[in-house]
Amino acid sequence: MANAIHKIPTVSNEKVLDYLPGSAEKKEVLSEIARLKSTKTAIPMIIDGKEVFSRQKVNVAAPHEIHHSLGYYTKGSTNHVKDAITAAQRAKDDWMNMPWSDRAAIFLKAADLIVGPRRAYFNACTMMAQSKNIYQAEIDAIAEWADFLRFNVQYAADIYQQQPNSAPGIWNSLEYRPLEGFVFALTPFNFTAISGNLPCAPALMGNTVVWKPSESQIYSAIAVMRILMEAGLPDGVINLIYPDGPAAGKVIFNHKDFAGLHFTGSTGVFNTLWQTIGTNLSKYTSYPRIVGETGGKDFVVAHPSADAEQLSVALLRGSFEFQGQKCSAASRAYIPKSLWPNVKKRLLDDMKTLKMGSVEDFSNFINAVIDAKAYKKITGYIAAVSKSKDAKIIAGGKYSDKEGYFIEPTVIVAKDPMYRTMCEEVFGPVLTIYVYEDKKFAEMLEIVDSTSPYALTGAIFATDRAAVIQASKALQFSAGNFYINDKPTGAVVGQQPFGGARRSGTNDKAGSILNLYRWISPRTVKETFAAPRDYRYPFLGE
Ligand code: NAD
Questions:
Q1: How far is CA 541 from the centre of its chain?
Q2: pLDDT in tens, 188-212
Q3: Would you give the distance in Å from CA 90 to the centre of its chain?
Q4: What does the pLDDT read at residue 163?
Q5: Measuring from atom 43 of ligand 1, which residue has the nearest CA?
Q6: What pLDDT sits at residue 425?
Q7: Which residue has a Cα nearest atom 26 of ligand 1?
Q8: Which CATH superfamily is domain 24-62+74-294+505-521 in?
Q9: Does the beta carbon of 319 sit less than 6 angstroms from any atom of ligand 1?
Q10: Which residue lies with its CA nearest to atom 23 of ligand 1?
Q11: For strand 457-461 and strand 520-528, is the pairing parallel, antiparallel, or unpaired?
């Protein structure tokens, strides 16, 4: 064993490549997509390091090309959940007792694989699984995930170094144990990086994990798992399974060793999970840690002093990149009447140039939404506008699921700031705008704060500093990530720790030290070098 206090490699954010026409990186990704499309992959679950299949096959296709099969995965059952828990428990002792620098080395190596030899493969899997254009895939599956892995190692080192003071004759220390039991990572479809971070963050701190990804992201989830295995992750530390959510929950939330939930997904599902855990509390050895990052209804408020050009670009990028399926996507905007004609013209002119289609054509800014369920929900909101007196579509509004789940970027203007697409999470390429009287800025801020139950991201656009200060104060609790003169999406690990409160989650800030604190259970140790040999204190001398 190496006797050393390790100095970890300096971390910095991974550079995003440009994928310019004719570039080597562009050619490599396209050839990797061609290779994936020419193969029908059988996607296994990974339990205790072994590939596991069931008899129930489920076809996998890219959301933008639904008639071309990329292969299949097989559905997991409650038995697979039980096997995954057993494997996680078996692996626990060796894993938590492994020197932390060795655990860290595995994750640092995974990051180097992602940004190096597996970059094209990882991008291609994400582009196909989630219908992301190359830029959206690169900032997610490559840059963000590598950042999560590397920065978390830095944060773990920072935590382990935090030690209490010691008085003369004693030595106090804090041991950062993992949680007692196993952690359940339940991940959403929209970010490959989140799917990787949710099992890896607890694992880095010495926990072992049962991981269930979204059914719509299994094609890139297996790529995450394969890279971790290639980097040397021991068998059983993270176990990847594909049962239905409720089937997984039934076993996991009834298990006495369930120690923590690391969730990202919708608010409704999180509420159900929390209630189940609460009901089962007496069954558990410890109070489970519950970390959940959930929905959003993210806003952009413009002050009459805002720069119209910057504002319209922020609205377009913030609302429509990755088809509006970012939890942070701008989905409601409040624009003063005096600015509206200018903003409207710029936004609509730019939107006319947006191309929609397959991820293989790099000139497409817009691709498909994730699946049939999402398509039905989003188009339901769009169809309802034509029947309402309170709202009107001024751009987009068409959709088709003939080849893939394509929905045009759509702008709705609402006459009522409480119109449903101003309040509810649509999670698609739909932006609703409310135009307000310039003098009602203060009233508008109150409405922004009280419109939805969420508080994830939001932005103020203003050149007048007093307006920035006023909005920042009025919206103090309206967003966990607040932007001044920028779109409300695109948080970077190590720069803007991410998460919101109210119904947007527990605000444990993924990509920061705060998140890692949730996966440890410190033990305080006091050692006394010369313990007393007489019970009598000096004051008893009389
Ligand atoms: P989802 O809630 O539908 O699914 C999340 C996970 O929970 C999936 O693995 C799903 O299979 C599982 N699940 C669903 N029902 C379950 C049940 N009854 N029991 C156990 N598991 C169950 O979310 P999604 O559609 O995959 O992702 C989109 C949502 O995630 C949006 O609401 C978005 O705002 C949110 N999101 C939030 C953040 C954030 O940081 N706040 C980040 C990304 C996504």
A1: 65
A2: 999 999 999 999 999 999 999 999 9
A3: 29
A4: 98
A5: 327
A6: 98
A7: 188
A8: Aldehyde Dehydrogenase; Chain A, domain 1 (3.40.605.10)
A9: no
A10: 265
A11: unpaired
The reply to whether 200 belongs to the active site is no
d(CA 354, CA 342): 19
Joined tokens for residue 224: 């995450």
pLDDT for 507: 98
Per-residue model confidence as pLDDT tens digits over 105-163: 999 999 999 999 999 999 999 999 999 999 999 999 999 999 999 999 999 999 999 99
pLDDT at 264: 98
For 390-431, write each residue's pLDDT tens digit.
999 999 999 999 999 999 999 999 999 999 999 999 999 999
Q: How far apart are CA 136 and CA 117, in angstroms?
A: 19
- Which of 435, 264, 422 is CA-nearest to residue 336? 435
Q: Cα separation of 280 and 463, whole Å?
A: 52
From the CA of 266, how far away is ligand 1's center (Å)?
4
186 Cα–ligand 1 center, Å: 8
Return d(Cα 338, Cα 122) in angstroms, integer: 46
The residue among 447, 514, 446, 442 whose CA lies nearest residue 480 is: 514
Please confirm, yes or no, whether 327 is among the known catalytic residues. Answer: yes
Alpha-helical (H) ranges within 162-244 are 192-204, 218-230
Tokens of 164: 């209490």
Enter the tokens of residue 460.
Answer: 């103020």
We find that the CATH architecture of domain 298-484 is 3-Layer(aba) Sandwich (3.40)
Name the pLDDT band for 3 (thresholds 50, 70, 90).
Answer: confident
Of 65, 144, 215, 293, the active-site residue reads: 293
pLDDT at 2 (0 to 100): 75
- pLDDT value at 370 more than 80: yes
Contact predicate 247/77, CB 8 Å: yes
Helix (H, G, I), strand (E, B) or coil at 395: strand
CB 142 within 8 A of CB 120: no
- Average pLDDT of the chain to the nearest whole number: 97
Return the residue matching tokens 């509810």. Answer: 424
Locate the domains of the chain by residue range.
24-62+74-294+505-521, 298-484
Q: How confident is the model at residue 175 (pLDDT cuts 50, 70, 90)?
A: very high
Q: How far apart are CA 385 and CA 390, in angstroms?
A: 8
Average pLDDT over residues 64-85: 98
| Mean pLDDT score, 367-388 | 97
Tokens matching residue 343: 């903003």
Calculate how far, in angstroms, residue 386's C-alpha sits from the geometric centre of ligand 1: 29
Q: Distance between alpha carbon 16 and the CA centroid of its chain, in Å?
A: 18
Structure token pair of residue 297: 């209804």
The strands making up 65-74's β-sheet, listed across from edge to edge, are 41-43, 65-74, 57-62
- Is the fold of 24-62+74-294+505-521 the same as that of 298-484? no
- 397: phi > 0 → left, psi -120 to 50 → alpha, else beta; which? left
Position 1 pLDDT exceeds 70 = no
Token readout for 12 is 């910095």
